[in-house]
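Example 3.2
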Amino acid sequence: MGRSQESFNKKEVRNKKEKKRKEKVQKRLARKDQDKNSFDDMIAYVDENGMITNTPPDLSQKEEIDPESIAIAVPKSEDLEPVNPIRKGVVTFFNQSKGFGFIRDMETKQSIFVHANNLREQIVENNMVNFEIDKGPKGLIAINVQLAK
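Structure, written as tokens:
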């Protein structure tokens, strides 16, 4: 007697393919039924905090905004407050042998690099100094550094 050409593994593969085909047909039918949903189910609203919700906004809470009061352009230079170019700060670190250090700005609490070439007077750590800020190759640098009087 000859053995069947269909082994157990072949039967399993055939059964899995058949099961996948049936699942695919069921999913297709389910999608067709879902497409009949109304447009209202698909609408989303954004509340005053920027969160997405499915409830429409309360029109009684609406406030009127004058479109003329919205500034779209860059402010004119005469509208800006004049900025004092001379800043105050404290020397947090200074290496005399290498000739560089850092100053902590009193206003912004930002750490700013300082090089020995930009010093007007000798400084050491914890000195109060006056300085100006300039743009360096790797960020902000302090220039015209001198001891605060």
